[in-house]
Design goal:
Distance between the termini of chain A: 52 Å
Number of strands of chain B: 0
Largest sheet of chain A: none
Structural class of chain B: mainly alpha
Strand content of chain B: under 5%
Helix content of chain A: over 70%
Largest interface: A-B, 38 and 37 residues
Shape of chain A: flat
Distance between the termini of chain B: 49 Å
Strand content of chain A: under 5%
Largest sheet of chain B: none
Radius of gyration of chain B: 21 Å
Number of helices of chain B: 10
Number of strands of chain A: 0
Shape of chain B: flat
Oligomer: heterodimer
Chain lengths: ~220, ~220
Amino acid sequence: MEFWTRTIIDNSGPLLDGFRITVSVSIIAFVVAAAAGLIISLARIYAPPLRPLLSAYIAFCRNTPIFVQLLWVAYAWYDIFTWPKDVFTAAWVALALQSSGYLAETFHAGFDSVPHGQVEAAEALGMSRFTALRRIVAPQMLLTMAPAFMNQFIVIVKCSTLVSVIAVPDLMFQAIRLTNIWGEPVPILTFVAIIFIIMIMSLSALSKSLTDRLRLRMAR
Amino acid sequence: MFDLSLFWEYRAILLQGMLINLLIFALSSTLGLTIGLIACVGRLSSFAPLRAASAGYIEIGRSIPEFVLLIWINNVLPFALSTMLGERIHFSPILSATLALGVVASGYFAETFRAGIQAVPRGHLEAARALGMRTPRILGRIVLPQAIRLMLPELMSQNIGLLKTTTLVSVIAVPDIMYQVGIIGQQEMKPLPLYTGTAFAFFLVILALTTLVHHTHGHLRRS
């Protein structure tokens, strides 16, 4: 047991720092991807001339491996755009790039899920546009989109482990670094693998209970 | 700025790398389908401990990030096995890559198999039994033809996902396309054309495959 605890407790500082980076890179990437996804799906509805371009963007994001996108953003983008300037930015930009394509499709499905007749009916009943959005459209959209959103967040957390390859000091980076320092791969890497399994399982369980609760509330 | 001639200049070696990706894909897909089928049968068995073990395996396979498992299998597993067995065990990078990607894929495949089998209406089984069919016959003529049709599109898109994931194996020194891109990029001091070229090459290949899956999906629905 001492063999297990020694390496991990003595190194809890760097591991905790790494965990913080993993969490922050995932959350930033998710928020940016959601915002970009919303803008893209709105632009697709309200700016028809942009449609082919946006569809191409979505297809590119969804059909390129995340690892290729990550290295592309980290090593090639600076030469094109002189941005991003540091690896942390490159990391969340790459993760958000991939997810924005998926989330744009999710928003699209969300908008499609509410029949237009319902909005017209709400207006005929004298509801203002905002009230119709708040009471009729938004709740139904939320119900359709919630599972896909949670799922995408889980995908981002999983893919965030890759950022260690471009030297972002996340949990996986620290685990590999400490393993190389101590020459003891078993405890640290196993511990970090278990942490990731627990994290993803809890997120899946949370996602399931949230969607179930949402469905129950909407069903009334 | 968008001069991709460097990418074209190294096409032979990059193509060789891509073939390694396809090799890893074929190996890990076969492994994943095999373990996935076994795990699915275990998950549906009437023997409770086997059911629990299979469910646990599937959950872990679906929860662990591929990259974490890849590094773990590459660094920890041979080390732990060597200590346990008292002799030096070495995993080739290709073996580690196949194991890691295969295990993760098997969790997803198992759930797809299960969903396909459970989507066959129970009444069909009862009707077949009432007609006097025996279990192998029911499986072969009633369950599987329907289940395979139901799970094929999902299986295909999961395999496309697996093909995308094979790009990770360069981190454990499998000489795949990303590995070659990294080396050539450093030698030539020009990462831009190589990474851009690879990104767009993957985009075209995967897009063609995704379109094919959509097409098959529509086709299966109509028939």
